[in-house]
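To illustrate this point, what follows is a protein record of this kind.

___
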Amino acid sequence: MAAGLGADLGVAAAAFVGTNVDNTVVTMAMVAGAPLHRARRIAMGQMAGFLVLVVVAAAGAALLFEFSTAVVGLLGLVPLVIGVRGLVLLRRPEGDGTAEGAADPAGASTPRRPRFRPEQRAVGRGFTAAALVTIAAGGDNLAVYIPLFRVGGAANIGAVAAVFVVGEALVTWLILAGGRHPKARRAMLRLGHVAVPILLCCVGLLVLLQAGTFSLL
């Protein structure tokens, strides 16, 4: 029994790592490109999104319900839409082209509109966006989580849940530590307004491809 429990722990750990790498990278980039006071909100959103996935997987296992991977893959549209929206915002003009204090043709002084800083244009800077991206990125992985909760008795299910809890705590720490690192923040404050939308688009497309959702279109 101990050997079986150890195997379940190993499988659960491997499943957790394999299904959370992409979302961890994206969420860390979101934290690094957002104002510091929003870092915890984004990390908590990621944690809440993962909790939703675990609850849905546990419920699916208890009800012996099978999710259509292709249909669940439609969740990939969420990060794709958020990413496209971020790319569209990049086209927003940074100013009206009039220098501050410059005179217009009528001779009046026209104040310059404030320029948009890159961090103001960053997308996915809040709790809700982080939660939605996490759910979307992990939605197609319900096919992996559900069997884990079906195998074995209560002890094995508790072990799998414990691995997920510990793993999520480590991921949250990693996201906050990496996202708030000065070098990461300097890089993302320069490039985050471009990098984060592109990462979100890539995650959305990857989810759609892996889930085979394009076959529904």
Observations:
- The two ends are 46 Å apart (CA to CA).
- Residues 2-92+116-216 form one domain.
